[in-house]
Amino acid sequence: MPIAVIRCLLASFALLVVLAAPQRGVAQDADFAALVDTAAKGEFAEQSAAISALAATGDPRAQAVLEALAERGLYVTAEGQVVIGEDHPDGLRLIDPLTGEEIGIVGSRDVERVRANNSLRRAARSAIGTLTLMSPDPAVRLNAAQTVFSSQDAGALEMLEQALEQEEDDDVRGAMQKARAAILLGSDDPALRLEAVEALREFTDPDIRSMLAALVVQRQDGTYAETDETVRAAAAESLEAIERKLAAWRIAGYVYQGISLGSVLLLAAIGLAITFGVMGVINMAHGEMVMIGAYTTFVIQEVIRNHAPELLDWSLFVAIPAAFVVAGLAGIAIERGIIRFLYGRPLETLLATWGLSLILRQLVRTLFGTTNQEVGTPSWMQGAIETTAGVTMTYNRLYIILFCLLVFAGLMVALRRTALGLQMRAVTQNRQMARAMGIRTGRVDALTFGLGSGIAGIAGVALSQIDNVSPNLGQGYIIDSFLVVVFGGVGNLWGTLAGAFSLGVANKLLEPYAGAVLGKILVLVAIILFIQKRPRGLFALRGRAVEA
Amino acid sequence: MARIATSTGYVPLLMRIDGGGRVLLGLMLAAAVAVPALNLLTPANFALHVPTYLVSLWGKYLCYALLAVSVDLVWGYCGILSLGHGAFFALGGYAMGMHLMREIGDRGVYGNPVLPDFMVFLNWDTLPWYWHGFDSFAFAALMVLLVPGTLAFVFGWFAFRSRVSGVYLSIITQAMTYALMLAFLRNDMGFGGNNGLTDFKDVLGFDLQADSTRCALFACSAVALGLGYIVCRLMVTSKFGRVIMAVRDAESRTRFLGYRVEYYKLVVWVVSAMLAGIAGALYVPQVGIINPGEFVPANSIEIIVWVAVGGRGTLYGAALGGVLVNYAKTYFTGAAPEIWLYLLGGLFIAVTLLLPKGVVGTTSDLWQRRHEIFGRRGSPPVASQGEQREAAE
């Protein structure tokens, strides 16, 4: 293909001219004018070289010229000046390509249209794509690199390589490398193709996969699109590497979802870990404490919406302490009113609190109606991070993961570093002795229960962001929460943490293979079997406390 | 527990049944005869005529009562609080439902002689292997016992041998029924998914809509409740029964005395599951549908409150509780649906706080006190259940 070779050579020459220039852009007005001149008046080969060179200047003015050329809107006046003509009722409106200023309006016969055949126009169009490779705006450069990638225009290769040398933005670099490899893939030299195939290994886009896949597919007549065997083998290898990478990304995505689910479980279960694990009370109304927290969030949001709409984005910061207080007080009331009569009778506690849960759910239904309530997500929690391999991480989930770890840390500090925490642990370990030492065990019981319930309320704030706020909100989590606590080991908060995350991740990893429902069933069965094996959970307490 | 057999030698059957039990058996016998008679033989305008809908409704209550008795057997006498007995009930119901589905034959909407309608709807072309055999009533009846029994056996075998007890056991039984609910909700399971099994036509050739069939089903339920009660009563008044009560009150002590606690528990557990299965199997033809809703954990918890209301550890009290609570449920969900859940919830709390021995236990306590006050001969005072357990702990 001699023409292509000539084009390449000329383009390289034009490039050298540009490269030699100390500064790109405005400084080289004379060069730019010369290139425009050549593009309009030269022979075919010169024209196409000039087109490439124009593109390589990265000059913003070049775009207008190239567009005009591609749309047959470039003219030469009688004086030999190259102008851009736009349609106008009186004929043509002429614009100077060098200054961008209007020259005047002339009849369409006063100027001569630059002849451009189809291949020239195509070259102009793809040059438009590449010329922006040098743009100072990274978004424009990225766009240009993607244009080159899809056009796979060999003429853009040199510009691309040049642009690559000075590119600093990683995203744009990646896109440029991708485009370069895609162009090299069409080269005649097997060595270059091999290089390209190996370079493409780094990317996971579906179009690259299909590009590579096309190389290794055997046609019906037994030949391959790719004639060279080494390149083919390398392509197959690259393809495999890409698949492996994608699979790894997918797994990472599942793990992320699992951690996200785990954080929700942890939030729901952590309060239960206190009331069930530390106090030995089975609170079936725990889910309703979560629901109360969610409804508190709803009420606070409504109040703020009606009275101070400008603060709506920050309503959650009001809701968190409010939910803690409301649910905590409800918890203290439950402890004082019902549970304290039932200590040492866990099964009866279970029944009474279940009745309470029925009443609370019905109460919320009476007050708020059975429909789901709309709780808005603040603007700073909206949106998502997307990775190249299709893994999406929404901000609200990320915030919930962070939030749940914060709550966990806060609870740990409260239990280990405060006087109340010390008393709680003392009462848990030996009630009689604690009482003998002057701890008011009844008060500690009430506060402990309030703390557990309050944390459930906080969980409700978080869940209002990802789940429907309805009277049955808590019911969806209660069984899972119990399993998390039992699985992790009753009375051990670290166990609850480990239990929540391992259940979450196991659930999400099983889901794509077994389906959502079957995955959940498998996890449930696994837990049931696990509890048979280790009746005291993952991290069992040892010593005398076990039998207490 | 009050009134257990004091001798381990042979005691005639009737002697081993306490007063309340005799009343229950008498009532069941009378109901099994009188209700069908009053329904079928009296004209509709006769004062004592029992309409058919009442027959079915009370038939349903009797099934619940049997279910409550089965729960009382494990909870009241062996201390195993099962939050998953609804699963055994539903499995028995599904086994019966599968038979009834096969009985429909080609009278279904799609007219397929082998496949039930929902399978035709899902474009299945062959009957799944586990549906084979259910065209025979005898096989289905066997499955009503075997399916819940096997599940209970496997579950109990693992749980009791690992000494999973108390709250932990309650939670995993709840997880079990929850997992089964999720499983039965799946269309791929081949049990009709969300809709379950319904549109039954007849049983053993008798039209399910006919008054006579409904009366017969009622009578069967009454007889089943009576027999179920007798079986439980015989178990708990035997030497075996004294061991399981020892397990309830002091499990470790019983084990140290040389009893293999896990096997005793296993037997009670399996028998109870089978009784629940029978209750489910009688329930389904009278209600006309079985769906995964029966597996909902909340249902299983509700059964516990029936037993608690009636009186835990009395058997006949559980039957009474099952009927009472469900009667109240029917009444209130019709008359004032919004307050029913308040009432049910309040009942849970009130019973646990104020009537730990249930209606039966509380009235018999009052009765006994009156006897003591008036110096008449009463049964010797026995430690209440709560005191016994506290002593054990």
What is the total number of structural domains of chain A?
2
Question: How would you write the strand order of the largest sheet of chain B?
Answer: 1-4
Helix content of chain B: 55-70%
Largest sheet of chain A: 5 strands, antiparallel
Strand content of chain A: 5-15%
CATH topology of the largest domain in chain A, what is it called?
Answer: ABC transporter involved in vitamin B12 uptake, BtuC
Broad shape of chain B: globular
Q: Largest interface, by Cβ-Cβ below 8 angstroms: which chains and how many residues each?
A: A-B, 43 and 45 residues
**Beta-strand content bin of chain B:** under 5%
CATH class of the largest domain in chain A: Mainly Alpha
Helix tally of chain B?
Answer: 15
Give, in spatial order, the strands making up the sheet with the most strands of chain A: 4-3-2-1-5
End-to-end C-alpha gap of chain B = 16 Å
- Overall mean confidence score, pLDDT of chain B: 87
Q: Cα-atom Rg of chain A, whole angstroms? A: 35 Å
Number of strands of chain A: 7
Q: Which ranges of chain B are low-confidence, i.e. pLDDT below 50, for 5 or more consecutive residues?
A: 1-7, 378-393
Detailed description of the structure:
The complex is a heterodimer of chains A (about 550) and B (about 400). The C terminus of chain A is likely disordered. Chain A has about 550 residues and is mainly alpha-helical. A 5-stranded antiparallel β-sheet of chain A has the order 4-3-2-1-5. Chain A has 2 domains: about 210 residues, no CATH class; about 300 residues, Orthogonal Bundle (ABC transporter involved in vitamin B12 uptake, BtuC). Chain B is mostly helical and about 400 residues long. Chain B has one domain. Chain B has 15 helices and 4 strands. In chain B, the strands form 2 sheets. In chain B, strands 1-4 form a two-stranded antiparallel ribbon. Chain B is globular, with a radius of gyration of 22 Å. Chain B starts with 18 loop residues before the first helix and ends with a helix.
